[in-house]
Amino acid sequence: MSSSEKLGTRIRTYRERLGLDVEELAKNSGVDTVLIESIEKGDVYPAINVLVKIARALGQRLGTFMDDQFVNDPLIVAHGDRQEETSSVIGGVEGHYHYYPLGKGKTDRHMEPFFIKIDPCDGKTLSSHEGEEFIIVVSGEVELIYGKATYDLKAGDSMYYNSLVPHYLGAKGDSRAEIYATLFMPF
Q1: DSSP notation for 16-67
Q2: Fewer C-beta neighbours within 10 Å, C or N terminus of the chain?
Q3: Each residue of 168-180: pLDDT tens digit?
Q4: Residue 144 in contact with residue 167, Cβ under 8 Å?
Q5: Rounded distance, CA 5 to CA 11, Å?
Q6: Of 3.90.76.10, 1.10.260.40, 3.30.950.10, 3.40.50.300, which CATH number belongs to 3-66?
Q7: Is this structure's pTM higher than 0.85?
Q8: DSSP letter, residue 106
């Protein structure tokens, strides 16, 4: 079973346990009904901001939907052992974020650490969700739109912000960027 199918099954299971239909989950999460149906079928692995909204609407932490098995502390992910878990797909078009979870399997975590490769993309859709994000640019250049302000960051730069403020993070120019990102979402 692919990671998209596992995710879809988990979301459907939690939704059904709460007695919600897809339309109710869509209303509670602010995520489009068609997208939720595609996620539940395993056709799509959503962007993290979409998954955060669904997790919150179902009363679960993000890791509940991303983890296959749990490990004892400390959790160590060797550079060569990183596995891409998500390549977000929106509207049938392959997305530009490639996620490598670094906290997968850590029990009772409050932060979600990722290594993310960001491909250049024309669209700049702002997202908003509860919590905070801390980002370090590893390579390339990144554009952060935060509210009405725009910031350009280069390798070695970092940013820490309240993710409730509408924001967009993308590769600047025509080259891929790589970042480390840690998301905190209160539960």
Answers
A1: HHTT--HHHHHHHHT--HHHHHHHHHTS----HHHHHHHHHHTT--THHHH-
A2: N
A3: 999 998 999 999 9
A4: yes
A5: 10
A6: 1.10.260.40
A7: no
A8: B
